[in-house]
From TrEMBL:
Matching NCBIfam families: cinA_nterm, molyb_syn
Domain MoaB/Mog: 4-176
Family statement drawn from the similarity comment of this UniProt entry: Belongs to the CinA family.
Pfam families recorded: CinA (PF02464), CinA_KH (PF18146), MoCF_biosynth (PF00994)
Protein name: Putative competence-damage inducible protein
């Protein structure tokens, strides 16, 4: 099913408003196996909006419009769509009642233009707005000699769009466009590996994919693979997904951190520590407390994190922690000593220390250097890793080193 989004609003084209609706629509529809093929942005102009509808109807099966359903004269989406469909607009009595209740509770009298928001297609289906005034709509257009096209109109106000999309639109699509198939998605997460390497390993499978399909999404050193299958039953679709997932795990098991759309390396590490009943303390320099923040953000009530400190592994600081013998040692040696010292000071099972030697290019506003990560496990020899930091902004490098530290910790704990 080819799906297209049309975002309506001159303010979007002029840059005064950022279009957050289209990405959210795309992400929500992926949950039910609907992928976006095209996206258009068009201003509040009847001729250009009609041209956008014509183009979309020629190449897509499902067209979702967002914006232009309000009370002003430049809110023209329903009017242009009705003319394009060859249908007429009528007032939806239920939406009108919701509007009247809204103003009555506030002791206000609405402007006549507000009632434009209760208009809907005579031969379409209305989506009532539970958190606003403008109703949405769905319309099935079937012209002679052409396949049926489904059009959905949503408000442009983000929270109104979001509520209608989840409560009305997704069930509508599943009932009217996915009756003979069940679509399931499975998300796999990998950390400490780049998107290009994953893409290379899966290149042949992605090139030949039919059902299930595979899509990659990347963050710094974190890759999510979405596998989506369609079948006659949910059970069959899930089985198809798992078969592909098992094949992928054979290639990437070392970097796998779990299933789920929202799985992160932080969740993975916290689960490992909690399952093994291990406690952790941290000493952070370059990352400035980012690792501790990300872990405690997973669960503030956990007993896993005993404490930590932000400390640069330089001569002055190591003297403060009773490590004067490291005055003339390298940053790598100081970091390893700090991991052990931190574990002992906080009386934890694990001490994690992170620091970096960096230089900053003021002309390019980028930083480069080497990051150092050390893990001290009670009863075991400390292990330290050097990680090259290529030319990027300090914020990105901190995020990368944070992920590398958590991945290195997970490897030591497994």
């Amino acid at each position: 099913m080819k799906t297209e989004i049309i975002s309506v609003g001159t303010e979007l084209l002029m840059g005064y408003v950022i279009d957050t609706n289209a990405p959210e629509i795309a992400q929500e529809l992926l949950d039910i196996g609907v992928g976006i093929y095209y996206k258009q942005t068009v201003g509040d102009n009847p001729e250009r909006l009609e041209a956008a509808l014509k183009l979309a109807s020629q190449r897509s099966d499902l067209i979702i419009l967002t914006g232009g359903l309000g009370p002003t004269q430049d809110d023209i989406t329903k009017q242009v769509a009705a003319e394009f469909f060859g249908d007429e607009l009528v007032t939806d009595d239920k939406q009108l009642g919701l509007m009247n209740d809204f103003f009555e509770k506030r002791g206000r009298k609405p402007d006549e233009n507000v009632y434009r928001e209760a208009l809907t297609f005579k031969n379409g289906q209305t989506f009532h707005n539970a958190v606003g005034l403008a109703c949405g709509a769905a319309y099935k257009l079937k012209r002679q000699g052409e396949s049926a096209k489904h059009f959905i109109l949503l408000p442009g106000v983000p929270h109104e769009m979001r509520t209608m999309l989840k409560n009305e639109v997704k069930p509508y699509i599943q009932e009217n466009m996915q009756q003979n198939e069940k679509i399931e998605s499975l998300f796999m997460n990998f950390n400490g590996i780049g998107e290009s390497k994953v893409a290379t390993l899966l290149d042949e499978r992605i090139e030949a994919q039919t059902n299930p399909t595979i899509a990659l999404y990347a963050k710094p050193r974190h890759v999510t693979i979405r596998i989506t299958a369609s079948a006659a039953s949910t059970k069959e679709a899930k089985a198809l997904n798992q078969k592909v997932a098992d094949d992928i795990l054979n290639m990437l098991s070392e970097n796998f951190i779990g299933y789920g759309e929202n799985q992160t390396v932080e969740n993975h590490v916290m689960a490992l520590l909690e399952n093994k009943q291990l406690t952790l303390s941290l000493s952070e320099g370059f990352t400035s407390g980012l690792v501790m923040y990300s872990l405690t953000n997973v669960s503030e009530k956990t007993s896993v994190i005993e404490g930590g400190r932000v400390v640069k592994a330089n001569k002055a600081k190591v003297r403060k922690w009773g490590l004067t013998h490291l005055d003339n040692k390298s940053t790598e040696e100081r970091v390893e000593a700090l991991a052990l010292k931190t574990r002992e000071d906080f009386n934890t099972d694990i001490g994690l220390s992170i620091e970096a030697d960096t230089t900053f290019d003021e002309r390019k506003h980028v930083m480069s250097g080497t990051g150092y990560i050390s893990v001290s496990l009670k009863g075991k020899k400390s292990q330290t890793k050097a990680y090259p930091l290529s030319q990027k902004s300090p914020a990105i490098l901190k995020e990368i080193l944070k992920n590398e530290a958590l991945a290195f910790l997970a490897e030591r704990v497994k």
